Amino acid sequence: MKNTNQILFLLILSFTLFSCKKNSTEIKINKIDSTEKIKNDVSDFVSALDNSEIKPTFSTSLDSVSVLNPNLKISSSNKNKGFVIRINDNKIDVKKLLTINDVWSSKDSVNYANNISEVKYYKPLNLLLLQLENDMCTGLGCSVNYQLIYDLNSNKVFPFGRFRTGFDMNLYKIKNNVYYLSKTFHGRNAELKDTIFYNLYKIEPKSIPQKDEKHFARFTYENEDYDKETSFIQEWIK
User: Fold this and answer.
1) Whether the Cβ atoms of residue 121 and residue 67 lie closer than 8 Å to each other
2) How does 39-59 read in b/e, with b if 16+ C-beta sit within 10 Å?
3) Higher pLDDT, 226 or 28
């Protein structure tokens, strides 16, 4: 009887260990499958976005604009009254600008900027995109940049901003509409994960760009590893 109980105990123990090992393997496989799916989904999304990008007539530094287009005059100054930009004699007082999009969970003043780092010109649209940065930045300030969409027809300026979401500045054509892509950093949550939202703003003549509330993409990252998404959700225009 004693031997029978020992054999039964060993059989139960063996079955339990086998089941635990099997479940552990299944969890590991599911995690790998999930990670691979996120990676593929993100890759497909980025490829579709790249294919929708509108190529500028030129992209250059401020010093080269007049060489590429003699009729386009852009200058800047940063004196006691703050950072001022002039486009074809139209004055833009940068310190008075507030971003249209949320930069870090809310809108941001552009008064931190003091330098134009890039200019993009779209001749068919008669639009300029200006990238603004702070050339004396320190710490987190070096992760901040601003983008001005300037309508050469109306002389109106539309400011956007970025924090820890890269330095790309592009227009996209999706379903025959022109969009500017903004990115918003939502900070670190209780699980130490960063969330970044991609949002589309529709560009129309003489109008303030309007946010497309129905379509967005959400990326979640862990430990500031922005090359490895832990989750990805999109409600994008098909």
Assistant:
1) no
2) eeebeebeeebeebebebebb
3) 226
Count of domains for the chain: 1
Q: Which residues pair with 131 in a beta bridge?
A: 118, 147
Three-state DSSP state, 79: strand
The whole domain housing 175 covers: 33-235
How far is 34 from 32, CA to CA, in rounded Å? 5
How far apart (Å, rounded) are the C-alpha atoms in residues 165 and 167?
Answer: 7
- Indicate whether 5 belongs to any domain: no
**Count of other CB atoms within 10 angstroms of residue 175:** 8
229 touches 220 (CB < 8 A): yes
Residue count of the chain: 238
Q: Identify which of 124, 126, 178 has the alpha carbon closest to the alpha carbon of residue 153.
A: 126
Among 17-21, 70-74, 105-109, 212-216, name the one with the lowest average pLDDT: 17-21
pLDDT at 216: 95
Among 224, 167, 213, 227, residue whose Cα is nearest residue 42: 227
Name the one residue in this structure whose structure tokens are 């820890």: 164
64 located within any domain: yes
Decide if 166 is inside a domain: yes
Q: Which of 154, 157, 155 is nearest to 146 (CA)?
A: 157
Query: Please, are residues 110 and 97 in contact by the beta-carbon 8 Å criterion?
Result: yes
**Alpha-helix runs per DSSP H in the chain:** 2-52, 65-68
- Cα–Cα distance measured from residue 83 to residue 115, given in angstroms and rounded to the nearest whole number: 8
What would the pLDDT profile of 194-230 be if each residue is shown by its tens digit? 899 999 999 998 899 999 999 999 999 886 778 788 9
Residue 30's pLDDT band, with cuts at 50, 70 and 90, is very low
